[in-house]
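Forwarding the complex inputs:
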Amino acid sequence: MTLILSNDDVDKLLTMPECIEVLEQAYVELADGRGVSRTRSDCLTPTSRDDALYSLKSMDGVVPKLGVGAVRISSDIVTWPKKGNTLVREKVPAAPGKRYVGLVLLFSTENGEPLAIFPDGVMQRMRVGAANGLGAKYLARKDATTIGILGSGWQAGAQLMAVCAVRKIASIRCFSPSADNRTAFSRQMTQMLGIEIVPVGQPEDAIKGADIVMCASNSLDHIFFERWIEPGVHLSSIKLPEIEPKAVKRANRVAIHVRDAKPIHVATKDLVMPETTDGRGWSSGDAIDFSKLPTLPELIVGRAEGRRSAGEVTCFLNNLGLGYQFAAAGALLYRKAKECGAGQDLPTDWFTEDVHP
Amino acid sequence: MTLILSNDDVDKLLTMPECIEVLEQAYVELADGRGVSRTRSDCLTPTSRDDALYSLKSMDGVVPKLGVGAVRISSDIVTWPKKGNTLVREKVPAAPGKRYVGLVLLFSTENGEPLAIFPDGVMQRMRVGAANGLGAKYLARKDATTIGILGSGWQAGAQLMAVCAVRKIASIRCFSPSADNRTAFSRQMTQMLGIEIVPVGQPEDAIKGADIVMCASNSLDHIFFERWIEPGVHLSSIKLPEIEPKAVKRANRVAIHVRDAKPIHVATKDLVMPETTDGRGWSSGDAIDFSKLPTLPELIVGRAEGRRSAGEVTCFLNNLGLGYQFAAAGALLYRKAKECGAGQDLPTDWFTEDVHP
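Prediction (whole assembly, two chains):
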């Protein structure tokens, strides 16, 4: 049978500590060359709407040790609305019922069969969280107890879950521009984590004295600056523009998620792509040479050195996601779903064939 | 609703003339830079069997004019059994029920929704056939009436269907090494096409005097040689080793399917890949510069010249498939399936989501 799982299923089954554990294993496989990851590709074309484009993205990965391969597909209608003075890239929930379209397909490396199909949303934020959690595990001070987080959205929650899984966190302060959002987020996450989260009105109030500073925004501009750096802090970012390049350069130790991972870009000729900084990271003048930075998998297997002293400033930049992460988290999800009978079974015959393709 | 279609559905709905027509349209879009195609990627890893590897392939394409994007996925257990003196690459039907795993997912470029999911097998041969049919349409003599075909397998049938859709064919001769196979194939295709197909015992008997010579084998060696070339013939091949490079060089006009289309290859480090010529084409010494050859889409839009005279020798090499072909044929299939209510409807909600991924 091929399992159809929902985001609710994924939410119930995929706990952050387990997700971190399986990704850590999978990164070892990747660092040692046994795991296989195919960079994201983006196909971009017009759609019938003048103000939108169609984007078909895919990324693949296989973790032979876990017996699972995954393809993650995003089928998006993308617009560029104005937010303040900048154009923001925004997915439109255009599918029936005002929904987004992101899918993960899991396959067995043992017999090729399609194991499961499920939406990517919940797993997407869990794997981003887990990667930054592992960044903190290998770079933050062992005795870190306080977090300052900038951001209060969907990604920010998973970021906190992840660091609380790798460090004994006792206190968290949260800043985001909207008072309503940061208050609601702090209340909700306090309940979930059992650690008091205090919403604060200025980013400096969140950051000051924090052992770990997490950026988890959808900002197109820098939100963390060099002048805020304190000795011994660990900086964490889920997208490049968040941390000012000068601040990254000040860190004693910087690791990235993936090296040499430029997405494959194919687009309709002369397609007009609105200019944004979103997803691009820094401008070229910022000149940080990514090819020289160690990656998270290298850190995990000890090929790159982690924090050397309590006073060092460390930094983890989650610069690009991998289909490979969906294969690892997917293997865990599938095992747990089978154990408890979650999801809907469809006949595997619907997704296999008797003719040699 | 998201449609689940079977190979039987595809077989009933996708006629060769329509498939050729929609691909011809789609190639115009591709030649003019409106259609978008992402080259195939292959992820290769070990599996638990010592004599086999796991292969996860994917290819994407979007035809905005038809409103459809497609991702085609192959999840294969691959072995290299010995066939005569050579190792042959062979997919093993290892999925439950001894089945293969190849899937096509179709998406709407209008709202992103998943339109349909179906196995790739039947469409795979139809699009290969249609491409070679279009090669013949643009390169073979207008008054061509006879075909000599080398091969009697799954692909050979679609090759004949395709050329019979673009030329008034009156007579076909078929050679393949096994007398049983060529006889059964000839009987079956005679019935399907309403044109008598004569099985013959030597390749020369199939080829002699034929206006169109089609290679449709799974041979790892050359099966058509320069010495067999007659003036005015059109040569057609579905994989590179079939036609001896010297014969290709003798042709006055040669077109290929795709230029610059090296698949993206990622594999487990030090993976032992048995040496075969399968899928590789010619050895490097054969030196035909593909970067200088026109493509089928260029031929269709008139950017490359077709046959100039009755005496010219022409040649079409179907050198690599495209996910783009599945988007085009998929758009046709989906429209026809909706018209006649074919397939099984699944709730689109199963494949979409309310969270921003």
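The longest strand of chain B covers residues 52-63.
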